[in-house]
Amino acid sequence: MAMRSQVYEWDGSRGTPGTTLTMLGRSLSIFIGGVGNNITMPASTTATQFVVIEEIAATPTYFGIRTNITGTSARGLTGATTNAYFGPLAYAQIVINTTEYFQDPDNVSNYGVPGAASPYPRSVNFQPSFSLHPTVYVLPGQTWDVRYTTFSSNAGVAAGDNQCFTKYTLYDGPDSLIANKLLEMGITVNPGNVDWYKRSLLSAASAPAPTNGA
Amino acid sequence: MAMRSQVYEWTNLAPTTTGSNIRQSNDPQSVSIDANKALDIFIGGKGTNITQPASTTATQFVVIEDIASSPQSGGALNVRINTTDYFQNPDVTQQAGVPGLASPYPRGTTSDGATSNNDATVPTNAIVAGDNVLPSFSLTPEVYVLPGQTWSVLYTCTSAIVGGTAVKGGGLGVVGAFVKYTLYDGPDSLIANKLLEMGITVNPSNVDWYKRSLLEQQSRAAMMTATNGGA
Questions:
Q1: What's chain B's average pLDDT?
Q2: Across the interface, do B208 and A188 touch by the CB < 8 Å criterion?
Q3: Which has the higher per-residue pLDDT, A210 or A67?
Q4: Model confidence at B63: pLDDT above 70
Q5: Residues 6+ away with beta carbon under 8 Å from A117
Q6: Which residue of B has its CA nearest to A186?
Q7: Domain region containing A161
Q8: From A126, which residue of chain B is nearest by alpha-carbon distance?
């Protein structure tokens, strides 16, 4: 199992449930942030691992027009009666070592991909405008993180109100070496190209030895 | 990280009902937007903004791949490079750009921004009636921002967006806009320029292809040198 598709789902209501106080405006690690379901240690790669992050997504937000002052829910998302957005105003950011991946056009780091652009879960009402292409590489020995930030205290803290999802592929052992080789060659690291490299090595090994007339 | 997928989201939300804020703020409020006035979503002074105009340095190359906006209130987006608007009418006059109905944000949202079935009898957990707007438009070919250029994205609505606090019958509105672009930096920016000169589309695959062809040329040259006895 040297090349494995992996997923991680975070929900702010699981594990140590989040509150408005512990979540609002805070950039929380979905792995070790101390809110929601967490893991035991920061996500990192060993010397023989290579990770390719292929997707990140967060709970979406609905932007509407309000002509009433009573409803607090729209399309399954919760908001305040005083405003016309429903949902957590959530963003998901990738951090490699200490570098934040997503930046604004002024080259200052932002909060990441909005849940409205990359919703989790996807539905007919909320479909993705964003795909992570090119994918993000986590090289051997690096630490990585996904940070979730919400800006609405009216979205609720129940199950499903604050969620984040990441999909990545883990290349381990020999496949990690191949992934590094592909990176050096400027070839996209994906399962198809790793398999192609293996096939080319095998065909080179099985080719008849060149005759030099000796 | 020389080739990075980037996103920018603008909303007419700020800490108070007037003005703007650098990026998103806690429990923001809706800011009014005038009808038929192009608003720069980066530094327009309304809603979420950034610190300075979007521009590329001498070692950056930007490819804008998608723009989208809320369909309600006749929202539309245009791209401006330096002082030139990208989307024009057939008679080369100014227009608002890509309608939110053609490129909605979020995808699947309603065309009118409805938040309830019926204003008079709104149950607490109302299910919003309405449609799901899907994109009719994709930005192909993409828009290139060359090194040293300034760019902006302009939002225009045909009916004013009402800010402030909700009142019955008031029509308080929240709208958003979204830009997806790829930033090529350092050596990858040089390759992007080279591809442009060659008339090849600038995208991550073609930048990788160009790198591979450079490596192949280098290894061929090294083999030739070795074959010739290093002479």
A1: 90
A2: yes
A3: A67
A4: yes
A5: A128, A129, A130, B7, B9, B105, B106, B178, B180
A6: B208
A7: 3-171
A8: B108
